[in-house]
TrEMBL record:
Annotated ranges, domain PAS: 149-204
Source organism, top-level taxon: Archaea
Highest classification ranks of the organism: Archaea, Methanobacteriati, Methanobacteriota, Stenosarchaea group, Methanomicrobia
Signal peptide: none
Keyword field contains Repressor: no
Keyword entries, A-Z: ATP-binding, Kinase, Nucleotide-binding, Phosphoprotein, Transferase, Two-component regulatory system
Name assigned to this protein: histidine kinase
GO-annotated biological processes: phosphorelay signal transduction system; regulation of DNA-templated transcription
InterPro entries membership: Bact_response_regulator, CheY-like_superfamily, PAS, PAS-like_dom_sf, PAS_fold, Sig_transdc_resp-reg_receiver
EC number: 2.7.13.3
C-alpha cells in the first residue's frame, strides 16, 4: 500500500495564484484551496494539512492574523506556515516572524524554490510528528506501569509521578508534585547517601 501524499493548504485571494500553485504541486501533494484567512481556518479543521502556504494580503483576515491564530491554537500550532508575499520590507518580515511564520516566499514565486522549501519543512514536521507519537506512547505506558516511576528536578522535587507511585506513597499525584522526594519519602539514614549518588549521576 502506497504512502498517502503529504497535504498542503494553499491560501490566496487571487484565483490565478491558487490555480498555479495547485497545478505545480498536485503531482506530489494533496492540495486544498482557500481564498481568505477565515476560510483557511475552517478548512484546517477537516483537511488537517501538513503545511500551509499563506498569502499575506487578503480580505477579511490577512496572512499575519491567520498565521497568529494558527500558532495560538494547540491543534494547529505545529503546522509549518509559509508566508507568501510581494512585500519585501524588513518590517514586513519581522511582522511575519512575530506572527509565528516558519518560512517566507517572495512573489512572484520561484517554483523550484517553492518545492525546496516545502520539502525541507515537511521533513522537519515528519520528524516532529514522530517525536510527538513516541512521547505520547511513553506517557501512556508511564501511568500503566506496575512499578513506581518518579521524576525529580535538580533540587530533588517531584515533577511527575505515575499512578503506581502515588499508590505506594499514599498520596494523589497533585499532592506529590512539588514535594521534595528525599526529604519526605527517604529514611533519614539513607538521605545523604542517595543525594550524593544522585549528584554524581548528574555530573556524568
Amino acid at each position: 500500500m502506497s504512502e498517502p501524499f503529504p497535504k498542503i493548504l494553499v491560501v490566496d485571494d487571487e484565483p490565478w495564484n491558487l490555480e498555479l500553485m495547485e497545478a505545480y504541486l498536485s503531482g506530489d501533494y494533496e492540495i486544498a484551496l482557500a481564498s481568505d484567512g477565515v476560510e483557511a481556518l475552517e478548512k484546517v479543521k477537516d483537511f488537517d494539512p501538513d503545511i500551509i502556504l499563506l498569502d499575506v494580503r487578503m480580505p477579511k483576515m490577512d496572512g499575519y492574523q491567520t498565521c497568529e491564530k494558527l500558532k495560538n491554537d494547540e491543534r494547529t500550532k505545529f503546522i509549518p506556515v509559509v508566508l507568501v508575499t510581494a512585500l519585501s520590507e524588513k518590517e514586513d518580515r519581522i511582522k511575519g516572524i512575530a506572527a509565528g511564520a516558519d518560512e517566507f516566499l517572495s512573489k512572484p514565486v520561484d517554483m523550484l524554490e517553492l518545492k525546496t522549501r516545502v520539502h525541507s519543512l515537511l521533513k522537519i514536521k515528519q520528524q516532529h510528528d514522530t517525536i510527538r507519537k513516541e512521547r505520547d506512547t511513553a506517557h501512556k505506558y508511564f501511568d500503566v506501569a506496575g512499578i513506581m516511576i518518579v521524576i525529580i528536578d535538580n533540587e530533588h522535587n517531584i515533577v511527575n509521578i505515575n499512578k503506581k507511585g502515588g499508590e505506594i506513597l499514599g498520596y494523589s499525584k497533585e499532592e506529590l508534585i512539588g514535594k521534595n522526594y528525599y526529604d519526605n519519602f527517604v529514611p533519614v539514614e539513607e538521605r545523604e547517601t542517595l543525594k550524593a549518588h544522585y549528584k554524581k549521576l548528574q555530573c556524568q
